[in-house]
Design goal:
The protein is α+β, with helices and mostly antiparallel strands. The protein is built from six helices and twelve strands.
């Protein structure tokens, strides 16, 4: 038994929403961590409308910071919370949305994050995020998974910090280069899924990335939907 979890920066739904719906539907994710997810006052209906169109529901969301966790029909949502992270003058508000979900007896604490372009803020927020994730994981007996737009690359400090706390799913699965940005010409891996140690990473792929697989996801839709590519992993118990 595995759980499909994905992360996707949807660029505020500023691009083709029909293409975005087709991409998300084709991912077949049980859990989806969204970044730049607009709120309910958005012209196109925001994250709730997007979730409904994709056959999902909003499990957790932050009013600020543009992060949310969507749950598919196989998921039972056990807990949800959000937190605005430490504010830095002159920088954007950043937040964490966390949903504890259960799929066929496997329980995950899924956290959606969108880290800052400022290096020191990224690292400070990452430590804050991990403190929350450790607490939620312990309180609910769930394996922590963090998905998001990290806004840096694997050799940089914040990524290294997260990879020291959790397992970077893409290299654990050894599938392609995993480049996620930009969707039109992917040359950087700045979006990722990190899972608790002891979790079995069955697969992890970035549809459209070199060496990855698009499967049912249309390459044209990936370009039309957002400037980022999604990352999707299959996780099991007992890694």
């Amino acid at each position: 038994m595995t759980v499909r979890i994905a992360t996707y920066n949807v660029r505020g739904m500023k691009d083709s929403v029909p293409a975005l719906v087709r991409v998300i539907t084709a991912l077949r994710a049980d859990v989806l961590c969204l970044q730049e997810a607009p709120g309910p006052l958005h012209l196109r209906g925001g994250r709730a409308a997007l979730a409904r169109a994709c056959g999902m529901r909003v499990a957790a969301a932050s009013r600020l910071g543009g992060v949310a966790v969507l749950a598919g029909p196989r998921c039972r949502v056990r807990h949800a919370e959000s937190r605005v992270l430490r504010f830095f003058t002159g920088l954007q508000v950043r937040a964490l949305a966390v949903a504890v979900v259960e799929v066929d007896g496997m329980r995950l604490a899924a956290g959606s994050v969108h880290l800052d372009l400022h290096g020191a803020a990224r690292l400070r927020h990452a430590t804050e995020i991990m403190s929350v994730m450790r607490r939620v994981s312990a309180e609910h007996g769930a394996a922590a998974v963090v998905g998001g737009d990290i806004n840096e690359r694997a050799h940089q400090p914040t990524w290294r910090y997260l990879a020291a706390q959790l397992v970077d799913c893409h290299p654990a699965a050894a599938a392609g280069d995993g480049f996620t940005f930009s969707a039109r010409s992917p040359r950087m891996r700045i979006d990722a899924l990190f899972a608790a140690r002891g979790t079995r990473v069955v697969s992890c792929a970035c549809p459209g990335a070199t060496g990855g697989t698009s499967g049912a996801v249309s390459g044209a839709d990936l370009i039309a939907a957002s400037d980022h590519l999604p990352v999707v992993a299959e996780l099991g118990e007992g890694g």
